[in-house]
Amino acid sequence: MRIGQGFDVHAFGEGDHIMLGGVRVPHSHGVEAHSDGDVVIHALCDAIFGALALGDIGQHFPPSQERWRNAESRVFLRHAATLMREQGYAIGNADVTVICELPKVGPHALAMRECMARELGCEVGRISIKATTTEKLGFTGRGEGIAAQACVLLALA
């Protein structure tokens, strides 16, 4: 078995939605990011890459490369899943916490879990999505951005 953890953060910017776990979530802002800025998938990818000892998302998808501009983060998750399978592993479970005051994550959690389970080739029951606030403290509390942290357990397939 292998364990990995990941973290991602993006500032809010112009827009009318954000991507979370591969799901378009209506919001008063978008995020400032090179790709679609999906903090949930970015944190999960980093957790998978970490468990496999393969660096981080920036090494696999450098923001300096224009071909990744506005890319769907599901592409990144598919790549992480391919590398995971190539090394003989499967998702034991993944646990992601979204950190923000808004938008509300709960109404979208099941759709996020389903989307990520599809990309990872596992059962929905192996993916957990939770949300928390920072009680109005820090940049997330002030509504300046959003963050996510993830941990993953990989097991030999």
Overview of the structural elements:
- The mean pLDDT is 97.
- Strand 2 and strand 3 form a beta hairpin.
- This protein has 157 residues and is of the alpha+beta class.
- The relative contact order is 0.26.
- 30% of the residues lie in helices and 32% in strands.
- The chain is built from five helices and seven strands.
- The strands form two sheets. A five-stranded mixed β-sheet has the order 4-1-7-5-6.
- The termini are close together.
- The chain is globular.
Strand count, sense and barrel status of the largest sheet are: 5 strands, mixed
Supply the helix-strand structural class: alpha+beta
**How are the strands of the biggest sheet laid out side by side?**
4-1-7-5-6
Mean pLDDT: 97
- With helices defined by DSSP (H or I, 4 residues minimum), what is the helix count? 5
Distance between the termini: 10 Å
List how many beta strands DSSP finds: 7
Low confidence ranges: none
Q: In what range is the share of β-strand residues?
A: 25-35%
Radius of gyration: 15 Å
Gross morphology is: globular
Tell me the series of helices and strands, N- to C-terminal. Answer: EEEEHHHEHEHE
What's the helical proportion of residues? 25-40%
